[in-house]
Every structure is written in C-alpha cells, then in structure tokens.
Amino acid sequence: MAAARDVILRDHSRIDALVLSAGLNSPQRAWVDQSLATFDDIVQTNLTAAVRVVDASLPQLREHAGQVVVVSSYSGWQFSPGAGVAYSASKTALSSVCRTLNAQEAGSGVRACHLCPGDVDTDFLAMRPSVPDAEARGRMLTADDIARAALFVLDSPPHVRIDELVISPVSQH
Length: 173
Fold this sequence. Notes:
By secondary structure, the protein is of the alpha/beta class. 47% of the residues lie in helices and 12% in strands. It has helices spanning 2-12, 36-63, 74-77, 85-105, 134-138, 143-154; strands at 17-20, 67-71, 111-117, 164-167.
C-alpha cells in the first residue's frame, strides 16, 4: 500500500479522496460448508485491505481534509443471512471503520461514508450460490448508480459528513 501511495503522490502530488470498493465472497456461505482459508481471504479483501489503504493514506487525507467512501454492502447495513458468515462480518465491520474515522479524525476534516448498496448487476454476482438471471439483473442497480452515489458523497461541502448511505433497487427486500 505504501508503494501504491507513493506512485499516486509522485504522479498526482496529493491524495484527498479514497473510494474503496474491493469485494470478495464465496458461494460456500454457511457455517457447514465454509473453509477458514476462504473466510480469511474474504476478510482480508473486504476489511483488512480497506484499513491498510486508509492507514497508508491518512497523513495525506489529514493534510487535505480528505474523504473516504467505503463501498460496503446492504449486508453491512442490515443483517442478510444469505450473504455468508465472512462477507457479513467483514462488511459490517466496515461501518466501524468509518465511524472511528469520523470520530477520531473530525478535527483534521477527514470524513468517511459507509456506502451500502443493495443488489448491483456486476460480475460479483457470479460469487452467489445461485446466479441471478437476466430478468433479475434488469431490476438491480448498476455500477453507474453506485459511482453516482459515491460522487454525491465526494461532492458534498467540507462542512457536511455523510456517515452512511444506503442505496437499493426498488425491488430489494
């Protein structure tokens, strides 16, 4: 992460915003069929990687009163038993990452948003035990919808903090 940060600083001279949107899940989502190796991979991708990026970037974010948008999940906002043990735990924990950033870094103007999208039609759906068909995908959010939500947060005035934003398709249960 430090090397990536250094390349960004070399090429752009500053870091004033992060949009963290990595995600991993597995079709094996129940206690009975999950493996601990897969559990670790999911937590490393969904939670630990986000913390590592924030940690590497925090001095720059402090200097520029930066923003962090953590693209989490509807499952990080509301318990969704079908999302899986590792996925639910890691995405829920992202809320605490954002809340602690907001509580501890407010004095430097750093703001964090826990962005919780519902069903989104992306390749990520291939990680579901049952992949939705074209009709179901047609009712879902798009990657563009999520990008627009992230831009809404990033475009907010410096005195405004959007702690959490839940965006879902009308058909989401």
